[in-house]
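TICKET: design request
STATUS: open
ATTACHED STRUCTURE:
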């Protein structure tokens, strides 16, 4: 399983490095979202400061939709979908590999977005360890859930529009918990992050288990 996961993750990451879709499209899109929020709320810096954690995670959430859609769009081209089914790779390894590739891309993006938030919104990044832990747990949940719902919409022609409808309601707990954890960390109240981090960890664990055991049947039905 782990060997197959490494093969799939390496393949997806090499495709992204060569195509540069993340660099040329996803990263600019994320920064445009932050700039639009800044322009909309700039007249009141107090509101902008308080809203920064939520705006950051909204940008990450929208970007995760693009990354997940891209992950399965590559497989849908030129009959790769059937090749994926007949590859003989462990379905759990396929899930873990694709989720890991999406997660790594999101983590790199979040590091850039944190710099952008600090620069555009004038936010002081306190409790950096807690911020990093929040990013890791939230990203694992986003990647795992995105991969599960991505394979559900895999074989449909309307997957680009169906995927957001499937994912956004489900990812609301991640958006809430990650935002509250960021607010507590940036506000100098690290103890308040414990419960929210637990929720993020439980969400990531739940969808990881669902993906490991359910990815194979979902792939066959897609």
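STATUS: resolved
RESOLUTION: sequence designed for all positions
ATTACHED SEQUENCE:
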């Amino acid at each position: 399983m782990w060997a197959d996961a490494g093969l799939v993750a390496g393949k997806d990451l090499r495709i992204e490095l060569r195509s540069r879709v993340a660099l040329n499209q996803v990263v600019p899109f994320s920064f445009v979202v932050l700039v639009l929020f800044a322009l909309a709320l700039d007249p009141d810096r107090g509101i902008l400061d308080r809203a920064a954690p939520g705006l950051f995670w909204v940008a990450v959430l929208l970007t995760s939709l693009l990354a997940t859609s891209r992950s399965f769009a590559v497989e849908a081209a030129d009959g790769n979908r059937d090749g994926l089914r007949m590859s003989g790779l462990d379905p759990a390894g396929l899930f873990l590999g694709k989720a890991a590739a999406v997660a790594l891309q999101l983590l790199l993006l979040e590091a850039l977005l944190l710099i952008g938030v600090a620069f555009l919104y004038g936010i002081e990044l306190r409790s950096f360890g807690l911020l990093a832990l929040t990013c890791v747990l939230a990203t694992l949940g986003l990647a795992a859930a995105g991969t599960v719902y991505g394979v559900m919409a895999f074989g449909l022609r309307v997957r680009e529009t169906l995927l957001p409808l499937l994912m956004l309601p489900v990812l609301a707990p991640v958006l809430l918990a990650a935002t509250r954890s960021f607010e507590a960390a940036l506000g100098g109240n690290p103890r308040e992050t414990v419960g929210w981090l637990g929720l993020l960890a439980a969400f990531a664990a739940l969808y990881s288990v669902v993906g490991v055991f359910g990815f194979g049947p979902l792939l066959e039905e897609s």
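CLOSING REMARK: The two ends are 21 Å apart (CA to CA). The chain has nine helices and no strands.
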